[in-house]
Amino acid sequence: MARLVSAPIDLATGILLAGLGTAALWIGWDWPAGSLAEMQAGFFPRLLAAALVLGGLALIGRSVLTNGEPMPRISWRPVLGVTAAVIAFALTLERLGLVIAILTVVVIGSTAGAGLRPLPLLLLWLVLTVLCGVIFVWGVGLPIQLAPF
Amino acid sequence: MDILGNLTLGFLTATTPNNLLFCLLGCLLGTLIGVLPGLGPTATIALLLPITFYLEPVTALIMLAGIYYGSQYGGSTTAILVRIPGESASVVTCLDGHEMARQGRAGAALAVAALSSLFAGCIATVAIAALGPPLAMIALEFGPAEYVSLMVLGLISAVVLAHGSVLKAIMMIFVGLLLGLVGIDVNSGEQRFTFGLPELFEGIGFVTLAMGLFGLAEIIGNLEETAGKGRVTAALSRLWPTREDVRRSAPAAVRGTLLGTALGILPGGGSTLSAFAAYALEKKVSRDPGQFGHGAVEGVAGPEAANNAASQSCFIPMMSLGIPPSAIMALMIGALTIHGITPGPQVMTNHPELFWGMVASMWIGNLILVVLNLPLIGLWVRILNVPYAFLFPAILVFCCIGAFSVNNSAFEVILMAGFGVFGYVLRKLGCEPAPLLLGFVLGPMLEENFRRAMLLAYGDATVFVTRPISAGLLLAALAVLLLIVAPSFRRAREELRE
Asked: So where are chain A's domains?
């Protein structure tokens, strides 16, 4: 089968890398580079960013010339579930305390997988809360509140 | 010099009941810390520093050293069991150690890691005693140019780690180097890639990055590949390594030990670099390199031995020259100065019991660690029997708290979530995160030394090839690169022809 781009994974990687490099170049546009003898803050980042752009372009070029596997499917459920659980933890921890933050991670997180029934979920929450409370708050002394009050 | 007399003095100092007790305490504490993701040895030593004021200097140092290598050991345990590297040196252990665990050989992986570390510890202790003082002088020969070349060699050998495309692996190193630059530039005070966020002024935390790229991405990948049920690890075949495992890992441990002892002496990233280099070496000398990444026992034995040997031999430059090779060592120097002892060449003559007591305690500490950990292996592998539906939310919670504890800020947790997604994307694109992490760790040091080397040479870039040690290192890097590129180049040409 003739496709325009025979190695789509390489193409995507190339675009990502070249994009990262371009963004780094653009962000660091105003930083002074100095000379080789007296390098300033902009020298090294620009060197790296240029290398990324070149490498990215090479990958894009290669994607037309060589054969590769088709683009893999992305499964949104685990990506979104895990990410949402972690962000929910970050948002709740300082306002509502560890007990509730752990509950949100367990509830949202388990939707990333096959899910847990209410009773096992409750059990997991209890065990984790006690464990983390004892180790991190009481044992290590992290400045975390357990509950909002 | 009378090595035997010195070692005897050392063992007499280290085996007083009091020192033994604190060595045990340090190892125990270190292992616990290493197993908990996030809470690194640096933070713990910093927390415990004031307490050591009430201890004898030798005892304080012995306990802190115990925490240091105990945590390294604990870090390998989580790397093998759940693929979360506790600190930078155990990134390599994730690759084959976790793969072994999936095949039901977690017990063997843990035992090989423990025994290789003990072996490395025994050899490194003797090496330090015999060669310590003269070796320290070699480290003095290393100027900025040599460091740059050494780091280039290390980064190039990290490419060997990847099984996929060489170009992608090299690009991952560049991405890592770039991520390492985030924060305020130490020389000019310029903010780089901080987006004005004060949380990024001090750079991205290693723990945040590693837990996102490895821990979270691993969970997402696991759930995806098994449709949410989680991977069923193969039934535990047996707890202990087979005769075959021992036969294969013994020479790997020897090579790793030699490499680790040599690289550990050099200040800066010694133990991380040596673990990566040992893995590359094992893959190169192996008759069947295809096994690496699929549970090759040499890939656990070599890096673990190198890591442990290096973390011991890095005490040489600290004790003899007063140069701290890492943040942890800097804290240890802090502990010494609290007691009015200035590290430097005079320590060995003025406080022989301090230097040799610590050398001896390292060996004892290693023994304690193995004795502590071998019985625990049975307990650790049972964690793998917990159904994944329970295990992964628990890992998520530990990762979240670990990321939070880096700076006590929720920002790190959100950053980790971002790196989790990034890690998943890289995984999908066939890019491996291990070279990225090495680039991240070495990035700031590479820039600093490159800058210094150029300043000293008035911008003359030929300095890297005119200085003999530097030229030798660069030649080695070139040889490694050719070794990697040659077969993959051939393969690419064959693909084109098809």
From this structure: 8-65, 76-140
On whether the CB atoms of residues A16 and B429 are closer than 8 A, the answer is: yes
User: Per DSSP, what are the bridge partners of residue B192?
Assistant: B183
Q: For A103-112, B119-128, B370-379, B470-479, which range has the lowest pLDDT when averaged over its residues?
A: B370-379
Q: Is pLDDT of B229 > 80? A: no
B2, with CB counted inside 10 A (0-12, 13-18, 19+), is: exposed
- A13 HSE (CA, 13 A, CB side): 31
Q: Supply the Cα-derived Rg of chain A in whole angstroms.
A: 24
User: Which B residues 101-130 touch A at CB under 8 Å?
Assistant: none
Query: Does any CB of chain A come closer than 8 Å to the CB of residue B386?
Result: no
What value of ipTM does the predicted structure carry?
0.93
CA dihedral B432, B438, B443, B447 (to 10 degrees): -110
* Assigned token pair, B95: 């690759």
**Does the pLDDT value for residue A111 go beyond 70?**
yes
The CA-based diameter of chain B, rounded to the nearest angstrom, is 73
Contact A116, A124 (CB under 8 A): yes
What is the average pLDDT value for chain B, to the nearest integer?
A: 80
DSSP single-letter state for residue B164? S
Indicate if the pLDDT at residue B12 is higher than 90: no
Q: Tell me if chain A has a CB within 8 Å of the CB of B227.
A: yes
**Token couple for B1:** 């010099």
The alpha carbon of residue A38 is apart from the nearest alpha carbon of chain B, in Å, by 6
Half-sphere exposure of B208 (CA within 13 A, CB side): 25
* Residue B466 φ/ψ, nearest 5 degrees: -85, -25
Residue A1 pLDDT class (50, 70, 90 cuts)? very low
